[in-house]
Amino acid sequence: MRAFLAIKLSENIINDIKNLQEQLKKYTIKGRWTNKDNLHITLKFFGEINEEEVSKIRKIINDISLNFKPFYIRLNKIGCFEGKDNIRVLWVDAKNDDRLKLLHDVIETELSKVGFKKDDRKFKAHITVAREIILVKSIEEINNLHKLDSDYFAVSNIHLMESKLENNRRVYKSIFDVSLKSNK
Fold first, then answer.
1. Dihedral sign from CA coordinates of 33, 36, 38, 43
2. Residues annotated as part of the active site
3. pTM score, whole prediction
C-alpha cells in the first residue's frame, strides 16, 4: 500500500481552507484543487509499504506518542513549491509549528532506526491546497490581499494514511491513528 503519516485538520480549518480556495480561484488560470477530504499535514511520506512495515510504524508511533502531549497550531500564510512552468504545489503553512517540527524530527529519527530512509529535504509543515497551478498574481500579492487568521487547532493524533486511486480520484483512508498522550 502507498502510505504516509499525517495530521488531520479540524472541520473549522477545512472550511477556512475551502473558503480560501474559492478566493484563490479568482486569481487562477488553471490548476487542480485539493478535495476537502484530502486536506492534511504530511509528517512522513513512505511510498509503498507492506503489513510488516505497518506494524513497525504503529509500534514506533505508539512509543513516540508517550512523549508528546497535544498542542495547537494555526494557519499562517500562502506559499508554494515552484515547478518548471507553473506552481507545482500551492500551500498554506502553519504558525507556531515548533512542536510540529520536533514531532517530525523524532518520527524521522526513530523510523530510521528500523530501516526507513530519512527524508533528504528540510521539513516544511504545510497543507496542499492546489497543484499544477498558474496564478495571475504573485504569492506576495495574494498574501497581502488575503490575511489568514484561522483559529488554533489541536494536533492530538497521528494517522497512518493509505493513498489510492478510486474512479480516477486520489482517496486517503486512515489505516490507524495514535493519540498523543504525554503527561509531561
1. positive
2. 40, 126
3. 0.92
